[in-house]
Amino acid sequence: MNGLFEFLFKYRPVLYQEGDFSFLSPWPLTTAAVVAAALAVPAVLTYLRARGKSSRTDRWVLGALRGAAFLLLFFIVMQPGLVLTSVVPQRNFLAVLVDDSRSMTIDDRDGTSRAGKATQLLDPEVDLVDALSEEFTLRHFRFSSRPSRIEGPDALTFDGSQTRIGDALTYARDELQGVPLSGIVVLSDGGDNSDEAIGDALLPLRAASVPVFTIGLGDEEMEADVQATRADMPERALAGTSTIVNVIVDATGYGGHTVPIVVEDMGTIVTTEVVTLPQDGQPLVAPVAITLETPGTRELTFRIPGLEGERVLENNVLHAVVQVRDRTEKVLYFEGEPRYEVAFMLRAVGVDENLQVVLLQRTAENKFFRRNLDDPLELVEGFPTTREDLYPYRALILGSVEASFFTHGQLEMIADFVSERGGTLLMLGGRRSFSEGGYKGTPLEDVLPVVLDEPRQNTPTERLARVQVTPTPAGANHPATRIDGSAEESAVRWDSLPPLSTINIVTGLKPGATQLLEGTVVAGGQGEAANRVVMAYQRYGRGRSMVLAVQDVWMWQMHHTVPLEDQSHETFWRQLLRWMIAETPDPVEAAPAREAVEAGEPVTLEATVMDEGFVEVNGARVTASITAPTGEVQELPMEWTVTDDGRYTVPFTPALEGIYEVAVSAGRDTVVLGTGLTGIRVAPGTGEFRDPHQRRGLLERIAEETGGRYYTPETASQLPEDLQFTGGGVTVTEERDLWDMPILFLLLAGLLGAEWGYRRKRGLA
Amino acid sequence: MLPHSRWTRPAFVAAAFAVVALIGAVAAYGRNPHPKDSGSPTPSPATAPAATTAIPSPPIPLQRPEYEWHEFYFTRAIYSSGWGGWGRGGNSWAIDYPKSDHQFVTVLKRLTNLDAFDWDNAVRLDNSMIRRFPFLYALEVGSISLSDAEVEGLRGYLKAGGFLVIDDFWGSREWAQFEYQMGLVFPNNPIIDLDLDHPVFNTFYDIEEILQVPAYGRYWRGGQTHERDGYEPYVKGIEDHDGRLMVIINWNTDLGDAWEWAEQPDYPLEYSTFAFQMGVNMIVYAMSH
Lengths: 765, 289
Fold this sequence. Notes:
A: 10-stranded mixed beta sheet, B: globular
């Protein structure tokens, strides 16, 4: 198409876009117009006055054709032309940026790698470079995670772990700040994986009128590829906890194929989940249940074996670092009356050495029974009245206890326990819970994930309903409700469990809440909703709130239809409690700014430091103790960031590949505030192979926003000429004739030919 | 049942007294107070006969007109007894029933904030509905003679998480019968002594001494607290393989009688107090351990 245009109009479209149209004839336009009219008018009048066989229509047609031919001649005589601004040869610089990242090693459909194509385009012996060199002084840069100047394409290694196009553009502009820069040429697949918005880097280039010309490398579509896109792995887990990790899988060209997702813990296979790949464009969320037994900083690998015809295998693997803690986590269970739920729940979790459910049970008015204490004085005065007493617990369970038992301050403290401390609140069903317990209008009403109705005036017996409990779609693959190894086995278990009872009428979820279990009324509950919320949760501030609006989960243990060897009841409580404390933060929390880095790549270690009341501490003494894979320990003092309360950072550059274990300890004066553990995985990244097709959209956007153009390797030969007229730097104004465009002569011949043809047809010749 | 009368004519008085005494004795034999010193032979455990008396199946609360939902139902075990002849309907399970149950629940509700059903609830061991009531009370087990279905039902109940309180059986012969029957239920779970430092003795009340609670009738007849050769009271237990206490055995003592006759002015407060304290402790323990 462009070739036809160029043939007819003499030049490529880009010149018309960049240039200004003008008549180059020395004659003034008005004078020429008068002369033309003087010639044209008699001719037209002659046509109009002529008589004979011609009709009026014939005369008008012939007159119009002749007039148009005159006008075209006039146009040609006036010497139409383009006024262009072109760069001055050898007076300007041109930056050539080459993507030096690993994704450039991906082979395209034609068997040539992107790197190979880039090298070929930049070969000095090839016309492109030759043409560019004739006009510009070339400066080569490479970029991946960091940009740098290179002498030529020979210095490219294509092993960079990231593609940061924005940084590269900024770097090149800064490097060539003092010289006339005509433009920047970028050779890349566009797989930018930096966190910064590309627009921030383009704005200065637009302001400086430096266009960017992008040459897109790589196939724009991958016809056959499987990618493990993301694994929603928690940062920490309690040893022995069965965790469900949602692995997101994208696949192209393999819809309906079954593949295994193999999970490895430090190289040892811990589980394999077989999934069916989705159709193109539909991501698959595959819940994979894993149990982490070994404490410490663990590297997990999620791997999908390569399929036949797959060209990119590097994106079949995901890595995650998780802190597996082998410690006892305390949960406070406050029960307002003697209830079987207490005994059965404590028994269910009693064998779990990582859970310590501290029981405070009101057995009579102002009389409490305590169990599983660390200290004989623990909770000796009843429910905590200060944050310092409540916040050591990681989760709080409220049983059948009325809101009026608490002071307003205690209710606010419980709300803060969730929102500020980051703990989890679980309210159980019972005659003194929810609306029936008077919680409507209290600070806890806001915290709970369900809507509290006005309390009913009827008796508990009248409200009693038996509900068959089933997981919602969200609950089917949620760790808190996974009561058996796989989703299928768990579903079978749920179907086999007997109904439970509830006297709380909980039907409404708050916006943002997630329902995990629903109950269908199978007996009782006349006049009330047939579907009940049994279990739901929501995030509230830093923590989570949860409800379990039934009162006899113990029936899953005692009911005569449940086999004695069935572990559903035990598993349910253990999974639920472990999930409740999984994300509860410690006073000192540490994490690297990026979970995975490469050897020699700097990373910022971050820590959040709070006191026992979970108030941020700014003047703390914070030290990061970093243990290298070799066992060598390095201690780095961390500095308060000043901008954020309680936040401390220190830069760190790991030298070796492997897992670095980091322990951040904080203290103030003589008080130890705590220690936060984290890990850094140092290894070659696979991020470059995520979505391995060419991101043409990004490359086109870069070009459009800066006034440049996008090219494929096949059209890159146009670049030198385009640069000549679209580039910045030192330029001159240039005029190009258009009067000799073939289209004009073809048009003139066409008009005259049409007149002759018309005459012949009408018998006027 | 307590024949206190004054008569003016000695002969009539003597005759009447004798009749009344006989009636009282018969009544006592048939129902309460205790007939265990009647001298009836105790069979050897190895030759324990099968139950000879059909045991009843009263409706559980869910099936009764006065049904109300509550957290706790004081549930009495209906079991087969070997040779009949005493207890309501010839069944020893029904001794003190239902007055003892009603009175205990009344006091229990006043002492604790437990949400308890006001009435009695007797359930057969071989009734699957028993699993709805994790607390179970059984007494007069000296003549217990469980059918296979009852053995199976009780074993499943306790293994699933149920809690059984045994009360009111005396002496070595009744112990032997009970021990034999429990051996059928749990062949590999020994009966152990519960010392005073066991949590069951301080879950609600701090109990520092195990008293021998006498049957009212026996105590009234002369202050005797023991029966047969059951001179020393014991609190024993059976644990599962995880150390969970499944059964509490009150041997050589009669808590149920103290619950039943606590309102009598001449019943010693010391015993009724201990019986209620022990009963409350056992229930709160069952609901928190």
